[in-house]
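Assemble and predict.
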Amino acid sequence: MRIRTGQAMKNNALTMEISSHEGGAEIAVLRIAGALDFSGIAMLSNFFDKITAENRSYVVVDLAGIEAICSAALGEFMGYRKRFVERGGSLVFAGLSGNIRSKLTLLGANKIFSFYQDVRGAINAYKWDYKKQSKSLTVAFPASLKLVPPVRQLAARLARQKGYSVKDAFRIETIVDEVCNNAVEHGLHGQENLVEMRVAIDKEKVDISVSNRSDPGKVAALKELIKPVTQGGGTHVGHNDKRGRGLALIRMLSNDMDVNITEHGTSVHVIKLREE
Amino acid sequence: MELTFPYTISVRLPSDLEIIPSIRKFVSEVLQVSGFSAKFAFRSEIIVDAICNNAITYGSEGGAESEVEASCVIYEDRMEIVVKDSGGTLTNIERLKDAVRRSRLGLPLSDYGPSGMGLEIVKLLSETIELNVDENNVTSIHVVRKREEVSQAS
């Protein structure tokens, strides 16, 4: 649903528009353009009444078209934000120009409101924070040990970027390194034999899946090798054991692990819960 | 287990601008482990950043649920990257087509705003830019960047 401002909603150079079809039933996007001064506050209240009447709890105020904003209007936004927070949502700003952003920052608004590059970024943040939506990324690369470091660092960076702690990110990096090294070492090699890693990350956990083509000559030995770790659940590796340390390490660092080896392919699925 | 050229790395990422820094860094690291210089890798990083930004900003009408695919083919003497979005509006596609056409003719792209600047930078740092739009408005952009030592010598 889109409610256009119409003539009655124009205040000098100020225009406002609500878009209610972006992102979901709980979200309203309020686009404001022009100069939002004291005289525009009544118009602002009118729009927030509409948003409240529609039972929307998360409001993205798109300020991409704003030229100026007065402190009284900022105070109004603070009041509305409080109300939406009480209803389990929030009010955030998106699309701020450098000039408006620095003015709002000088007024201390950055300590209260979240700023996003654009409306989509704000909606993504809502889905991440409130809906616990996951983000997934898939990488396919030739089975070469040289490519494992960039792949493991990609997973770690993704975790850091999504707010995971340095410690969690490092553990994720370690898991990806071990799983991908195993895939390269024990799977089929060559350009045509790709290793595929999929990382699905949400606010609470990281779900890592790595698959590769099995080397038929190694399948039986691999099945034997993973038995102690996958069936017994133990992580003990003897001092003289040359193999199996990687899997034991993954098991120690993760919350769930599943290995599936067939003649055609091997897949390892690991879940790591966020600790910090 | 050694790397032999050419090889392909592909990444499927969500249409989320926040992911791009991780992706461009990944491509840079892949290039460096493949024997390309840090300078080449960094400049390629700039290309990846610009075309992925465009794909997400202008070519992902499906919003956060849509995906962008980036495939990087690494040769001994060059890197070719194809970034495919999930479909943009006709206005954005026409804008992109026009920008690519202008870039081929050597015309300035400054009037396209920040996105035009991105393409201008890609043009500056690469040998070729090709654009392909299919019947579903899915756009793929193909950029070739040669190893500098080679392109300078030729």
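Chain B has one domain: 7-153.
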